[in-house]
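Methods — Computational structure assignment.
A single polypeptide chain was analysed. Its primary sequence is given first, followed by the predicted tertiary structure written as structure tokens.
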Amino acid sequence: MGIKTYGSMAVDWEQRIDFDRLRRERLAKAKAQLAKSEMGALLVFDMNNVRYLTATTIGTWAQDKISRFALLTRGEGEAAEPIMWDFGSAAKHHQLYCPWMGERSRAGISMLRGAMSPEMGRAEDVARKIRVELEMRGLLKEPLGIDVIEPPVLFALQKEGITVVDGQQIMSDARVIKTEDEIALLNHSAMMVDAAYDELYRAMKPGMSENQAVGLASKVLYDLGSEYVEAVNAISGERCNPHPHVFSDRVLRPGDPVYYDILHSYMGYRTCYYRCFSIGYASHALVDAYKRCRDYLDAAISLVRPGRHTGEIAAVWPRAQEFGFPNEEACFGLQYGHGIGLAIWEKPVISRLVSLEHSYEIKPGMVFALETFWPSKDGWSAARIEEEIVVTETGHEIITKFPADQLMVAGRHYYTVDGPLPATREHDAPASDRVLEMVEARARREPVGVGD
């Protein structure tokens, strides 16, 4: 039957997304990775990792503040369950509404990325909290893995006698294979972007600006239940090449190329989902670029199945020099693949920059996006497409459903005396025999002289 699409409600008459199972399975995977490591405990500040371990979240205003933190320790029973320190009253809210955390949800605050200066003692307070928990469990002498951290907190932990090591890979490895419920949430999130693209397609026309398109897409997503529209990159016209990775107030014009990347979160699970269009009609150069872009993407998708490796996918993509860049670092992200889950970039990363020498085995349960780019021969337009793919036991399934096999023309409503204007404009194509005959006849009547 493939991956199912559900509504956003929980109901008694169907088995849909099981959030209790989601919480249990995510935590179990993190515990298993910790048990395999040399570390005695793991301290996380990244909000996505905090959510993965504790199934709690607060407003996305906190996403970049490194203010929440959670500790996962080795051991058995209650002593090995995660402890979380959260922003003020949020900790009390979790005690009331997150029974799986209960009293292990506590108030605590770090430095808010330096907004609270070192002499205020917040770094030392965080370090003491962690030391107490490690001592209680006999883990003070064991390495403590950390994902991301403010330098004063790092130094304060070291002053407490704690050996700090890189714990980022533990969480990356725990998150690389998605559970059944994570895949369902990723599919639901992609479905919402399908709807946003449908509204954009209906609305795009000359006079609409990139930022208006961003506003429309964002409204559709929030109306459908998105908790966080991380970005809508809207890129049009001359801005398409080189790719600037940010929208502007540029206004769409007839014949413009335009591509979007829509990134948002539903229940924490993200999208990274490009689509490319032309406004009113398309140039032959853009049509050719789109086909090249699609061919590279399809070649990559055809290789996605268990047992293949990320290096095999990267190898089918063009070298940087083939599309105008001096090296792979200079074009990083244009021919690209990346895992997707609670963050838009997770393992595995697929790129000629790293994957040819450091290849990664593709396994069932991985979910990643593949995205390609190709510049047009006109020197300013370009095509950009992306699909999100679930690796199944026998192959793969694409969960991004808005049509992208061929270049879509939006806002096409132009008519000539002979009927609808063709979807491709002719002035950049080879001249027709009739036009050539006219030019030659005029040349015979009005020869053009050359200067002395």
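Note: The chain has eleven helices and 18 strands.
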